[in-house]
Amino acid sequence: MVYRRCMALLKDEAEAADLMQNVFLRVFERAQSLDLSQPSSLLWNTATRLCLNRIRDKKRRGLDVDSSELLLNIACAEDEGYEAQGILAKIFSQEQESTRTIAVLHYVDGMTLEETAEMVGLSVSGVRKRLRTLQARVKNLEVK
Amino acid sequence: MIPDWKLEKYLTGDLPAEEMREIRDMEATDEIFAGRVKMLREDNAAILKKLPFEKLSEKMATMPGRSNGGTGNTVRVNFKLVKLAAAAALVLAVVSVALFSQREMVQGGTVLASSAEGTQVMDVAMVSNVENSAGDTRIKGLGARIEVWKKTADSAVQMSNLDEAREGDEIQLRYSVPEKCFGMLFSLDGNGTVTIHMADDNRAIELAPGKMTTLPFAYKLDNAPKFEKFFLLTSRNTFSIDTGNLDALLKNKDIHAESVNLRKVEGK
Questions:
Q1: What's the predicted TM-score (pTM) here?
Q2: What phi and psi values does residue A73 have, to the nearest 5 degrees?
Q3: pLDDT (0 to 100) of residue B54
Q4: B12: which chain A residues are within 8 Å (Cβ-Cβ)?
Q5: DSSP string, B144-204
Q6: Which domain holds residue B230?
Q7: How many independent structural domains does chain B possess?
Q8: In angstroms, rounded to a whole number, what is the distance separating the alpha carbons of residues B75 and B61?
Q9: What is the CATH number of the domain that holds B142?
Q10: What is the ipTM for the molecules in this complex?
């Protein structure tokens, strides 16, 4: 599942294999702060987030990126809502998914708002709000 | 059409029971969909062959926090161990779920249950007595593990510590040990009844390292109240169990205990 997810987003076997390992290592490293009740969602979301970071890094370094325009836009979007979480919020709540990950689940994977919310452990209104925030910064996004 | 993400969750058995049932029905009746599922299962096997879990576990073993260096205080060391165990359990659980559910679908043979005195045990079409296809996947650097699985229709889901269980639930136990040792599996229920699932009479048996091994029989929970706790005990030396004095066994510093505790609830 993790390898296929990385492969679907990165379209490169070597990178997908590398990222797959990173996903498991990341979960291993941060198990204390993660919600472990739905392991496949956790791995799917972690893979998505790390792939988005890889796509964004490659784009910033001027390397070729074999991704759709939509995915590229999401990957390179500013994620202020997530990054600006206060320290106290981070300490007292479990790590929240980035808005970019939420956007990929909804716009690229085609999940409904309800499915996206369940996948990331947020309320539907919370997901909608996060997507609207991102929408203001990314072209061609419309909250369904 | 079932989207990829949902299909992946289906393959790992991580969907609600109702959805699992619906998709299983579709797999049984829709040839095209069944072909798609079969292709993904074959892809899983190919990926595991190409990128074996052993390499990953070696990396985990070298990550900061694996060793305490002998300088930290006790509380800190224990915290790290718990953290590592939880993380390792998660990663292994996910890999196991993928492998186990895969095997469920293709084999699912009925095996004969063995019986422990005073405990209801029965035949179930739950697992094959053939070793897991992941048997060659070694888990060097990780501790002994016990897994408890519950049969659901024609598949199975892994039970987590403190999950709910009911009378009649069909339970399958799996274990792995990181090195050659002696071990036994038993359970204790709310009536205080001890059921030995794997031992030579009351003595621990020699266990081979690395492989995730599935016991060749399933176990049906009786009406004992409150809890059902499953233990995997391991030691470098042989040992035996005195069911009348479990405390002494569990306090023995030479014996390592892993357990999964299920909460017994009433109703279906």
A1: 0.50
A2: -60, -40
A3: 67
A4: 1, 39-40
A5: -EEEEEEEETTEEEEEPTT-EE-TT-EEEEEEE-SSSEEEEEEEEETT--EEEEESBTTB-
A6: 108-264
A7: 1
A8: 21
A9: 2.70.50
A10: 0.77
